[in-house]
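dumping this here before i forget
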Amino acid sequence: MKIIYKDGHVDECPQDQELHVIRHTAAHVMAQAIKRLYPQADFAFGPATENGFYYDVDLGDQKLSDEDLANIEKEMRKIVKENLPIKPFILPRAEAEKLMEERQEHYKVEHMADLADETEFSFFQQGEYVDMCIGPHLTYTKALKAFKITQQSGAYWKNDKENKMLTRINGVAFRNQEELDAWEKEQQEARERDHRKIGKEMGLFMTDDLVGRGLPMFLPAGYTVWQELENYIKEKERKRGYLHVMTPCVGTVNLYKTSGHWDHYRENMFPAMEMEGESYVLRPMNCPHHMMIYANRPHSYRDLPMRIGEIAHDFRYESSGTLKGIERGRHFCQNDAHLFCTPEQIKSEVADVCNLIFEVYKDFNITDYRCVLSLRDPADKKKYHDDDAMWNHAESALREVLTELGIHFTEEIGEAAFYGPKLDVNVKPAVGAEYTLSTCQLDFCLPAKFHLTYVDKDGSEKTPVVLHRAILGSLDRFMAYLIEETKGKFPTWLAPTQVKVLPVSEKTLEYAQDVTEKLADAGVRVVLDDDNQKIGYKIRAAQQVDRVPYMLVLGAKEAEAGNISVRDRKGETTEMSLEDFIAKVTTEIRTRSL
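structure:
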């Protein structure tokens, strides 16, 4: 694939850069199409991204519809068919500024002013369209083979909410139509798996703007799943000596000033509330509360490690554009814990956390994941607690422990918590990009800030080390992950409705009621479908909407024989006694079988 660089030379594109160049060119072609259709358009930024491309544009009072997006894509295809050559040129600053001013590119002019050290600027032109850009690009518009406009959204100029809201138009582009077709197939799969769609169908959770965006509410079926996950992880933690607590969802601003969150995390927190001369905030995380629980009484080295756990309600001020059902909201419940230990116990405690993570992943058949050692960016003095010696010690300690444990990991700069390095376990879902599910953070910072101590063997006072860890992450996100992985077909122990009893007609309703009662007495979550509908409709509703593991179809034959007809998710039907079925399903529930 030939590409042209800003100095005008043409060369073969390195294979690992092909998609980036294609998508960058697509952004220019899209901008040209927009300018043809909307001459008043004033363009901001238009980069290629990991998943496609976009352009932020000021369209004045013009609002775009889906039909408008289709027309822009249609105009792009015309430009491709015109096979316009893409030509670069370079201008000194004064001429570059004059060109952009003449073309009414106000955002480009402002951006040039931000690039104070640049004495010249490169541009690329195709037909009547000119864009300031460093390239490289395809050599002709016809080389753009496969693309699609996907959506529009709002975006602040320079990502600053104090600036004007622009229209962001997104698209995707690929090397060929086959790759685009594969992407569209993946998108269809993503839509079918979307936990928001499945959650609505199954009645798991809901949102309402009157309550507030990003504040999901769990309905009875969804809260059943939520409670099962809570019971599951608490049971595992109790076996490891965790002590569960409950702490308030608010705290004083002074609490978060002490921890450092007020300085390093305030933009992600809800605004402070004033009451009786004191300022309070909804908590974004729980570590300050747990620090205070530790500080509640004196401690000896004999008390350590001390493992404090909580399923804690947290609130973070996420921008509306990032909200996504229960995967990312403004309220969520962390499977949180803080482990207070001596320096000598760091290795064993990190090992135990890692073992718990991998044990949980095995229980849920999570196999596609990778471990990342997240480190600070030493140049970023604003984001991270400023103590080089502490950081060097903490990062070296965590790196050494992970290496000794034989855990394969990669390192990423700039992804640490503000107070310390962390191990992140990133999962790759069935569709979409990977994200962090579990984490274990090593912290020498907060215990010192809160003046936490323990009396060591020699009688001296020392500062404990703290491990911040989350296994399921948040129950909300973990549940969203499971919904999308299973398409709502939870394992029997986790399913909101484990068995649905389907009488064929009113003649077998009395027998169905008896079967339902016996299943309920055995501790099975069972629902009797006594609606006056045909059996085929009942089966489809149980299978496709409720996604129940088992359906008991009870006709005259079953009632007369006193047995049941069991239909599973695969559509296979088995005749058996009710006693045998109860033994089977309760074993699956008790053992949490997948």
